[in-house]
Amino acid sequence: MSKSIQIFDTTLRDGTQGEKVSFSAEDKLRIAKRLDEFGIDYIEGGWPGSNPKDMAFFDKAKNHNFSHSKIVAFGSTCRAGNQPEEDPNLKALIAAETPAVSLFGKSWLLHVHEALKITPEENLELISGSIEFLKKNGKEVIYDAEHFFDGYKDNREYALKTLRAAELSGADVIVLCDTNGGTLTHEITKIVEDVSNSIDAAIGIHSHNDCELGVANAVAAIEAGAVHVQGTINGYGERCGNANLCSVIPNLQLKLGYSCIPEEQMKHLSTLSKYVSELANLIPDNKQPYVGRSAFAHKGGVHVSAVMKNEQTYEHVKPELIGNSRRVLLSELSGKSNISYKSDELGFDFDKTSKEGAEIIKELKKLENEGYQFEAAEASFELLVKQKTSKKPDFFHLEGFRVIMERNAKGESRAEATIKVRVNDQVELCAAEGNGPVNALDAALRKALCEFYPEISTVTLQDYKVRVLNGDDGTGAKVRVLIDSAQDGSSWGTVGVSENIIDASWKALSEGIIYFLMNKKSKPKHKTTIEFPLERSTA
Amino acid sequence: MSKSIQIFDTTLRDGTQGEKVSFSAEDKLRIAKRLDEFGIDYIEGGWPGSNPKDMAFFDKAKNHNFSHSKIVAFGSTCRAGNQPEEDPNLKALIAAETPAVSLFGKSWLLHVHEALKITPEENLELISGSIEFLKKNGKEVIYDAEHFFDGYKDNREYALKTLRAAELSGADVIVLCDTNGGTLTHEITKIVEDVSNSIDAAIGIHSHNDCELGVANAVAAIEAGAVHVQGTINGYGERCGNANLCSVIPNLQLKLGYSCIPEEQMKHLSTLSKYVSELANLIPDNKQPYVGRSAFAHKGGVHVSAVMKNEQTYEHVKPELIGNSRRVLLSELSGKSNISYKSDELGFDFDKTSKEGAEIIKELKKLENEGYQFEAAEASFELLVKQKTSKKPDFFHLEGFRVIMERNAKGESRAEATIKVRVNDQVELCAAEGNGPVNALDAALRKALCEFYPEISTVTLQDYKVRVLNGDDGTGAKVRVLIDSAQDGSSWGTVGVSENIIDASWKALSEGIIYFLMNKKSKPKHKTTIEFPLERSTA
């Protein structure tokens, strides 16, 4: 049996301290569900005492039944002078109703003197009192010793005293935090070993990446005796980020034989990484170890043939293990393996050597070059394949649309769209307003098509995302629009790319509806509305 | 005297193996000059035997007098069966006319058998023969033991034999390469210590980042006895990149007391990092340790108030040491301390307890609730504060705009905007086209304002980002637009939020221009264009 390591994810708390990282309460719940499926032990959701948005997440989380993960609320020790049961921060931790709490306290005399302005003894009492209170309230307590390594280097005896205070008060895990991220790997090893010999409680590590050693320091601490590791997906976090769990987990589990997550989940690591970056709306880092798009990219020539003969020659692990794939750059083969990987994943069976197969590959390569991505747009991918392999039905033809947006001197805005569609020999011209140009176009399209396909009224739009692909071109940049449509509990994604956001949105919107009609095998009905002579004459 | 470490930069060779990294020969020369000024010991310029562009660089480099750095040409050992003096690859190395050569050879029997298809003894002869030939030709020889760590783990004896062959033939440095990047830090330590005890030559380390341990492994090897470290600026390189010298150098020199570069150069590290990313045309990584824009950015309220009291509390080194600077971010996590720090930085005399101070905080909270984020939009923040504390000048009034976007049955699109602005008593009505509605509005606004403020033509748009805030509202969702404008090397960010993407863009675009005019203290000039009676009548 391999040794188990507790994985503690703080993407939703420390991760959101990263610049440009921000999640809605709804996003947080979606990520928590994915982390639960993936087999993360602890999910730190936020700091309920400091932020109303975090409280909204805990309210949502209460109503969800997590199968593996424990949700954790984060907060500080009691304020000096407060009784624990009267302390607003501790009360907020109880109110979050999570099974576990992570509580941070001071280990460094500098902070005790300068930030808290209390005596060293008072600080020890705050730690003990707060933990005892939380334990009395039935919480599992993860004690975060903030600035532990700096504190230890400044005054070893006092730093260890704070840990002993936490241990004696019943803390379940004691986490050594390199809060400033300035500690070097060999120091981590030495200090964690010393702590292991000084206390009996389980030890954890919380490292940051300010010296580009976040992952190394987490691994070194585990090798030195820690059994609990804190980090974030993709290493998001304040300043240079936290220890990146997407590297820590495979290093520990695939290379060192520790048990971190259920073995069968490891192949979902790459998808998890992408999912979180999508919701954070941050561009995934191609160079990211293990899960990045370039992590197993090989150039043509000797490397490729060597890899084909024996992958060990140029790959440190098999990419499939973490759900990534090998890419062969500057080669016809790369496209084929990519696409067959993708279509296999989406559950399509088509012959890659057939004429249609070759055409799909060609078209996909062209689209990917233009900035399309089909990972979150299975419906667009399926439409593309259907178009090439079978007859995609013609549900409607766009005769044209026009979107107008006006703003006046008083700052009042108005957006309006007109659209003309043809279904067989019948034409419908509709106008609609919206709170923005895309919303107006969406409304006009639905209004026009409902005349022929009333079932469209049951389709809802679940999500609309915009990503600028090449920001340096300013407002002339290309954008990718991702849309999730839903009906009756099932949902599907479509994608559009253009320099014109309305064109990109049009493609994603219209494909969302075509996909729905195709799956319903819809047939158009004759319009029942009265037609005005003028409108007909424009057909 | 602190121990000297040789710094070997391979940005121009291994760095260009990174996906999307590519330099012209002229770019390479510019970077080499900067690396020389910075005090890098060795600059590997390319592989003259494999690539004509690399040869063009060596031709240029010959004519430049480097004051500190040695230029290095890279190549492989002699091909099996060739005499060294007849081997095209070795001849190209001589032809490059560099003082030093880095020569790679095989250490791993797997490669000897499967890639070279020769006997282990023949491989040793290739190593010896090639090095002897280069030494006879007066070269300093840096021997790169490719796949050394994998080879060592597979067959320690043979791996060490290859090093001894190199040593006996006169190699000046023997570099242990973790070519696949799969070696863990504690393995590096153990193996480098063993090698140190087995050979007398100077030892170097060449690490990759596939386990996110590239920097840790370089540092560990130095601590274990190596005296030469190879890496790239910003960690560019094949797959997940090489050891990042922008982190390795400060870790070694500022934290461990080794001497890597002249002390007075350290403060140019951040600029060097940006310079190379500019020439590579890659977006700088804000999260990059030491040199990134966010490396000393503080977001949490607790952190900010502590940093203001004593910077050591949340900063592992002083940002000035590497030419970076502290930044305070504003967000929903921010408390009063962030706001007052920010306004201090921007030069506002800001009393949190004053009437204006309270109003600013109230307004900020309101805007943040609506989805505004000011962390990347300092200019919008400054405009907000100015509005409350002093008279913000009126540069222009919007009388109205209209944006039209049309698509016809052939799928052709057209976007056009008209705008009417008033400056004092003069009105300008302009129309412009764009490749999308926002681009058209941007063009029309600039065209109209250039009539009064010609200096606007020097402002460029650097970045345009869109984020959907509440995706579940579909196309009716709120969006946040972030714009970076720039002029003459300085840049500033503005933000707009609306359910209407054009309104949100309008706010960010117009504030970007107002901020510029305010800083320039611009005064409007009278229009010089001929005015048509009809246009005037609309005023």
From TrEMBL, chains A, B:
Pyruvate carboxyltransferase domain mapped to chain residues: 5-267
Keywords: Acyltransferase, Amino-acid biosynthesis, Branched-chain amino acid biosynthesis, Isoleucine biosynthesis, Transferase
EC number: 2.3.3.21
Pathway noted in the entry: Amino-acid biosynthesis; L-isoleucine biosynthesis; 2-oxobutanoate from pyruvate: step 1/3
Cited PROSITE patterns: AIPM_HOMOCIT_SYNTH_1, PYR_CT
Gene3D superfamilies: 1.10.238.260, 3.30.160.270, Aldolase class I
One Pfam match: HCS_D2
GO molecular function, one term: acyltransferase activity
Keyword Calcium attributed: no
The family this protein is said to belong to: Belongs to the alpha-IPM synthase/homocitrate synthase family.
Protein's name according to its UniProt entry: Citramalate synthase
Organism annotation: Rhodohalobacter sulfatireducens
Organism placement in taxonomy: Bacteria, Pseudomonadati, Balneolota, Balneolia, Balneolales
